[in-house]
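Exam revision sheet. Question 4 asks you to relate a sequence to its structure. Input first:
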Amino acid sequence: MSHRAAAPPFAPVPADPSGASGPISVSVDALRVRRGKSTVLANITASIPNGRITGLLGPSGSGKTTLMRALVGVQKITAGTVTVLGRPAGDPRNRHDVGYVTQAPSVYRDLTVLDNVRYFGAVHGAGRDDAQAVLAAVGLAGLAKRKAADLSGGQFSRVSLACALVGKPKLLVLDEPTVGLDPVLRADLWEQFRGMAEEGTTLIISSHVMEEAGHCDTLLLLRDGMLLEQLTPAQLRERGETEDLELAFLRLIKAAESAAPGNGAGTAATGGRADS
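Answer key, structure tokens:
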């Protein structure tokens, strides 16, 4: 098992790298998560602006899912603080204000599409009209009476998204929501995400597909459990000296590896790496 030298701590980053001012939805300070001897997240510090789309990007195993779990309060943390909507992550008072869509859809297969959304909506006091409006927003109005078990993979994922949207959360956390969707559906979803942000919803969306970074207002770039940068897509292109976002990200990774003590990969892990 290899032992890498610890990288220097990253300094706090601005709430919005573009320079625009505004309220903060999420504040993360010196967050660390360990599993056994493995460091999954190492000294993450970042601020996420309100009413914007923040992309959480990085390769598989970089810690994206663990960070999202910490933001919604279901991840045990080792050190640091996570503040969401002015309260500690996981605070019961945020229950109706935070929506979380995991990679494994939380949908009852034996219920119809509409009944699934109405069931989750009832928890938030939403009615039938609210459920139907959300189904229309995700393009499932015509499948309202179909059982979830009879849907395609992409449709199934959109039912899970509708269940999260029906509560009208102030913060919506989405773990790779476009995985397995065709290009047309992906484009439709990003258009919907943009509309939600314009109406004031804060969205945090993870992806390992760098081309999706261009849809975001702000990017958090993760690698081996560490935050490499928080910046805008335009700043990423500038830093990487290329219009290709994926290539720009790879250049930042190489720069971070070169700058790390001992020319390691920049991870602060003192043991083996754990999956995200």
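Marking note for examiners. The two ends are 19 Å apart (CA to CA).
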